Each structure stands twice: as C-alpha cells, then as structure tokens.
C-alpha cells in the first residue's frame, strides 16, 4: 500500500510537470519570431505616431486632390462653358443661361436645381452634377469664376 506522503508527493510532482509544460508551450508559441509580443511603450512611442503620420499624409493627399482654387474666365457673347461632375461656377458679371441635358445644374446658394435655358443668378454658386452640363454666356459676355474640370467652346 502506498503511503499518504507518497501520494501527495506524486500529485505535487504531476502538477509541477504540468505547470512547466504549460510554461514551455506558452514560451514556444507566444513571443516567437512568427508571432512576436510587443510592449505598450512600443505601441505608444513608435507604432501609434507612425500610423498617425501615415494617416495624416494620406488624408492630406486626398484633400489636396479635392481642393482647388477658382479661376477667372472672361467669356465672350455666345461662348459656352461645359463642366464635368463636381465643377463649381460663380457668375460675377454679365449674363448667362444654363445648358443642361437632364435635371440641370445645382444652385447651391439657393438650394434649387436650375433647368436648361434658365437664367444664371449673379454671385450664386452653381455645381455641375452631370458631365457635359454648363452655361452659355449672354450677348454681352460674362465673367465667371470656375473651380474644377471644364472646357470652353
């Protein structure tokens, strides 16, 4: 018959062997070359600033691609300006009418859609919604500000 002390020693030995086995397994799996562990200081001091810099760079590139400056155009009587989607137009002086094939161009100042052949209001911001829409200068010509892709015909 096995003594009580030997049973306790055997149980403790089994528990120690199991604990060492779990420790060896964890050391072999976690923190290896294939799956390294990183510290909080590495996240705070290195990785986060690097990711933020990359994000800001991408954001700046995207915004710079969208942002534009207005260009002044002096249009002669009957001349047409054909814009592409997203092109912005402001009539500063003279007169013009809308050239639109579909729903028209958007008068963002008034919050309405200006249909084909309707008069363009001075000092209102218009946005081209469909490629090929635009405006035609009146007989006295027009001075417009344009931001975006367009062609003059």
CATH topology of the largest domain: Jelly Rolls
User: In CATH, what is the homologous superfamily of the largest domain?
Assistant: Clp1, DNA binding domain
Distance between the termini: 109 Å
- Gyration radius over CA: 36 Å
Percent of residues in helices: 25-40%
Q: Please write the CATH class name of the largest domain.
A: Mainly Beta
Query: How many domain modules?
Result: 3
Structural class: alpha+beta
Main beta sheet strand tally, sense and closure? 8 strands, antiparallel
Number of helices: 2
Strand content: 25-35%
* Overall 3D shape: rod-shaped
Could you tell me the number of beta strands? 8
CATH architecture of the largest domain: Sandwich
Q: Any low-confidence stretches, pLDDT <50, length ≥5?
A: none
Mean pLDDT: 85
Polypeptide structure, described:
This protein has 153 residues and is α+β, with helices and mostly antiparallel strands. The chain folds into three domains: 1-37; 39-67; 71-152, Sandwich (Jelly Rolls). The protein contains two helices and eight strands; from the N terminus they run H-H-E-E-E-E-E-E-E-E. The protein has helices at 4-29, 40-66; strands at 71-75, 80-83, 88-99, 105-107, 112-114, 125-127, 134-147, 150-152. Strands 1, 2, 3, 4, 5, 6, 7 and 8 form an eight-stranded antiparallel beta sheet that branches. A hairpin with a 4-residue loop joins strand 4 (105-107) and strand 5. The protein is rod-shaped, with a radius of gyration of 36 Å. The relative contact order is 0.18. The model has no long low-confidence stretch (mean pLDDT 85).
